[in-house]
Amino acid sequence: MDQKHKFQLIVFDGDFSLPSIDPESIKSILYTAVAGVPVEVRLFNNLKNCTLYTAPTFVHKNLKFKTFSDIVLYLKTLHFNLDRNLTPKEASESLALTNLVQSKLRPLLEYYYWIDVRNTFELTNIWFMRSLPIPFNYIYTRRFRDRAVDLLESLHPTETNFDLIKEYVQRAATECLSNLATRLGNEDYFYGNSPTTIDVLVYSYIAPLLKVPFPSNEIKNVLSMWPNLANLIKRIDDQYFPNLPKGSKYIKIEEKVKTSDDEVSYMAILILTVSATSLVLGFAYSRGYLSQ
Q1: Where is the Metaxin glutathione S-transferase domain positioned along the sequence (predicted)?
Q2: At 160, is the pLDDT very low, low, confident or very high (cuts 50, 70, 90)?
């Protein structure tokens, strides 16, 4: 391929044995890997890339595509189509599964990454603040948190109790995981002997739940009920990401995970309490409750 017109994919850095910390970036990385796209993966971790792009961004010639759906649509025009061998019935079912995964698993990931106070202040914020250059670390942590708040607000417009919202999204995700596990059964992939788009999406949402060491992650224990889903993640890792480094680049993870409130310092408790209160008040104010 002409060096001038090569494919480029700009993504957030990987960590915790993931090709990227960002589920949206994982989708594009895995899709291009499975489809055999000769793409140059560039990291969204320096001033130049952070200034010129967002992540993920797929670049070819003078074209830029900034969402997974747009990237896939463009790649299909170039005959990189993971679903080309699906029958019409399978394609219809795959679309339904895609909608299920996006509507039930994405809210859970957004909650775990950016709404759950312990996860946000003990892991996610720290990771992005260290992996991105100033001022983009501040810009993106705020942007992602606002995006998560907007999503959860749109799904639960009358609810301001975050414990209840967490129950809702975890219950919906659990039902989704059960349906996916039943549909996958004992097969290697959802359709045939190689990954299709639905496998890409399932990996992109479930792998972070299994691998990112969230301080608060009840769904990880729930996932143990469906070992075939964990096996799917491992199968894709073995085939497409066999050399991902273990451990963390940006955060030192303690061997002993804190699981009891008694193990958290009084200062951490104060920070968490203030942060949770601030978030609740923000929701209430945005809906006009405080102006009544």
Answers
A1: 173-236
A2: confident
- Write down the pTM of the prediction: 0.86
Report yes or no: 271 and 121 within 8 Å, Cβ to Cβ.
yes
Q: Two tokens at 173? A: 């995700």
Type of residue found at 195 = P
The answer for residues whose C-beta is within 8 angstroms of residue 229's C-beta and 6 or more apart is 177, 180, 181, 184, 202, 206, 223
The gap between the terminal CA atoms of the chain, to the nearest Å, is 62
**Within a 13 Å sphere around the CA of 90, how many CA atoms are in the beta-carbon half?**
12
Q: How far apart are CA 88 and CA 197, in angstroms?
A: 15
**Taking a C-beta distance cutoff of 8 angstroms, is the pair 44, 264 a contact?**
no
123-148: string of b/e by CB count within 10 Å (b at 16+)?
A: bbbebbeebbeeebbeebbeebbeeb
Q: How far is CA 5 from CA 59, 80, 96, in A?
A: 9, 17, 35
Retrieve residue 285's tokens: 């104010």
Tell me the pLDDT tens digit for each residue of 92-121: 999 999 999 999 999 999 999 999 999 999
The structure tokens listed for 9 are: 């994919």
- Tens digit of pLDDT for each residue in 40-88? 999 999 999 999 999 999 999 999 999 999 999 999 999 999 999 999 9
